[in-house]
Amino acid sequence: MKRLAPAVLAAVLLAGCGGKSATQTTTNDFPPRPATTPTPVDPGKVVIEKFVAAAHASKPAALWGLLSTATKQRVGPFAEFRVHTAIELAEGVGGFRNFEVIVSERVTPEFGLVAIDGTKVAEGTTERDVYAVALRLEATEWKVELFGPVKVKPIGPDPGAHEDVVAQVAAAVSGQAGEGTALVYVDGLAESPKIYTTKSNSTVVVNYQPALDPGRHTVVVFGTVGRQASATGWWFTVRRKPA
């Protein structure tokens, strides 16, 4: 994989690296409209609400209609999608209840990002969880982008971890050759990560001084390599107040 060039890193400086927890917010950068027109409904929010509802209701046709063309090519034909992937989505993102959108942003001309945090029911248990997904613009519609060659994986803290102190959040982005973009959001706010690269992947790291405050924190990481994109989201809990 070609390195994710720092020059094209799209980490928007909306928050510093202090340890104070911020209220979760939703950014809406999809895309600006002339001031003379009414403020549009956030398309990222609209897409994820439809996606969760279709998955929860086990409606394969509705899910299929929300997927990008590239995603359909990866999971198709529809008959196969209906009996495999649609069931997986119903058991996964379809389990969300009473969620809120914590990130919704257009990142590049072609790709956007949306993430939710909410109550999820899975295997008879209920807990809060985070879900993030890349969106691809096709003509005038945003479509859900899944199962692509770009991989975004948490490094630390681990998803669902309960840590005494957290002074660093990190993730790895890997994919096929091409320039890339990486974004990191902690508690719904964009951070300015450091980038460490190897021949196979890039690691994005956000350091905190002082460490993060006690409580539950959410992380959303988005990455592109070439014309492919992916995202992941997770949460962790900090037990102690930083010294």
Q: What topology emerges from the helices and strands here?
A:
Elements: H1 43-56, H2 60-66, H3 69-75, H4 78-83, H5 85-91, E1 96-106, E2 111-122, E3 125-138, E4 141-145, E5 151-156, E6 162-163, E7 168-174, E8 180-186, E9 189-190, E10 194-197, E11 202-207, E12 215-225, E13 228-238
Parallel strand pairs: 6-13
Antiparallel strand pairs: 1-2, 2-3, 3-4, 5-7, 7-11, 8-9, 8-12, 10-11, 12-13
Q: Which overall shape is indicated by the principal axes computed on the Cα atoms?
A: globular
Structural class: alpha+beta
CATH topology: Immunoglobulin-like
Return the domain count: 1
Task: Write up what this structure looks like.
- The protein is 17% helix and 40% strand.
- With 243 residues, the protein is α+β, with helices and mostly antiparallel strands.
- It starts with 42 loop residues before the first helix and ends in a 5-residue tail after the last strand.
